Amino acid sequence: MSLLKVDGLRAYYKTEMYGISRMVRAIDDVSLELQPNEIYGVAGESSCGKTTLIKVLSGTIKPPLKIQGGSVKYQFKSSGVDMADVSHEEMQRNIRWKEISYVMQGSMSVLNPVRRVVKTFEDIISTHEGIPNHREFLERTREHVKKLGLPPDVLNSFPHELSGGMRQRVAIALATVFQPSLIIADEPTTALDVVVQRGVLQLLKEIQGQSKNTVLLVTHDMAVHANVADRVAIMYAGRLVEEAPTEIIFQRPSHPYTRHLINSLPVIGDKSSKSGLEGTPPNLANPPDGCRFHPRCPKAMEICKTEVPVMQDLGNGHRSACHLITGGKESSNG
Ligand SMILES: Nc1ncnc2c1ncn2[C@@H]1O[C@H](COP(=O)(O)OP(=O)(O)OP(=O)(O)O)[C@@H](O)[C@H]1O
Ligand SMILES: [Mg+2]
Predict the structure, then answer these.
(1) What does the pLDDT look like over 235-254, one tens digit per residue?
(2) What residues sit around ligand 2, an ion, with C-beta below 5 angstroms?
(3) Which of 16, 17, 24 most suits a substitution to test ligand 1, by most atoms within 8 Å of the C-beta?
(4) Distance from the alpha carbon of residue 26 to the mean position of ligand 1, in angstroms
(5) What is the mean pLDDT of the chain?
(6) Is the pTM of this model over 0.70?
(7) How many whole angstroms separate alpha carbon 204 and alpha carbon 64?
(8) Do residues 254 and 329 lie in contact, with contact meaning Cβ atoms separated by under 8 Å?
């Protein structure tokens, strides 16, 4: 059974400036499922909606972001949760940290800059489980941190005393105290250099391997997905354009946008210049009709300008939304 089912999700930012209201269609008709015990990667260029998707899945939406349609349903071990029905209190008390934890983009936001790291652990554990015995709490926290290969004295440090990589490990340690069903990590290694990055990713992989929970890993860096993810989803301009097991995404990408992302990866020993794709992702307040990628697509056809391509099942867990698959003819299952 799937851990999470997202169906036809739409989430827009509604902003108002000088009396003119604008709708930024950041998530537009996204459907996907996450399975227990997998690392699911989400990729795509900046501003394609990755963080917005995470905000909805983790139940951390606030205005001007609003759900416009579709559904987000979890099946945790003990209960099923429809995110449309869950109250803010229920979310805070029983779901956040315990079932779903979220390592945010620039994870520092979870660490209080003026308090020692151990205090942040104390805050989170005391809100969710209470701390009847302080010595036990300290022991358990030290044990947890040690298990993740962190020196126990990080607990007595202030966040600014730690390196970026160490702070990111601390954020991961916090996210895993309660062994949640789903760990969401948003660009967890983007600000780190390559060597440190490898360590942090290794840690995430190890934790997943031990706990057999689900990790939703968001990063624009395809090389990270190649190394870590079991399956990869590609987003473009608020829509999911392709999804497949990682080997298939890299060996037989179907969507021209996916091919572009893969081709722009550096290859060791290759000195030829990479042919970049012209242009930038569209403004989501006024996205193009049809396939949102058509203005940049080297393979665009007439139909791409007017018809939104339907997600096609290509077998082996591979799906892709591109008119090339049906040879430019409208598909029958749309
Ligand atoms: N608070 C906000 N108000 C209005 N628009 C917003 C807000 N936050 C994000 N957006 C818009 O929503 C779209 C999706 O943004 P989002 O942050 O989800 O992208 P992203 O894929 O995470 O990008 P990045 O790789 O840069 O983190 C963008 O067009 C962005 O400008
Ligand atoms: Mg983001």
Answers:
(1) 999 999 999 999 999 999 99
(2) 50-51
(3) 24
(4) 7
(5) 91
(6) yes
(7) 32
(8) no
User: Which band of pLDDT confidence, cut at 50, 70 and 90, is reported for residue 108?
Assistant: low
255-289 confidence digits (pLDDT tens)? 999 999 999 887 767 666 666 677 889 999 999 99
For residue 29, how many C-alpha atoms fall within 13 Å in the half-sphere facing its CB?
8
- What lies within 8 Å, CB to CB, of 112 at 6+ separation is 119, 120, 123, 159
Kindly state the tokens that stand for 245.
């097991």
Pocket of ligand 1 (CB under 6 A): 13, 15, 24, 26, 44, 46-52, 64, 105, 220, 284
Centre of ligand 2 from the C-alpha of residue 300, in Å? 27
Collapsing DSSP states into helix, strand and coil, what is residue 185?
Answer: strand
Per DSSP (E only), the strands in 166-226 are 182-186, 214-218
Which ligand lies nearest to the CA atom of residue 47 in the structure?
1
| Closest C-alpha residue for ligand 1 atom 9 | 52
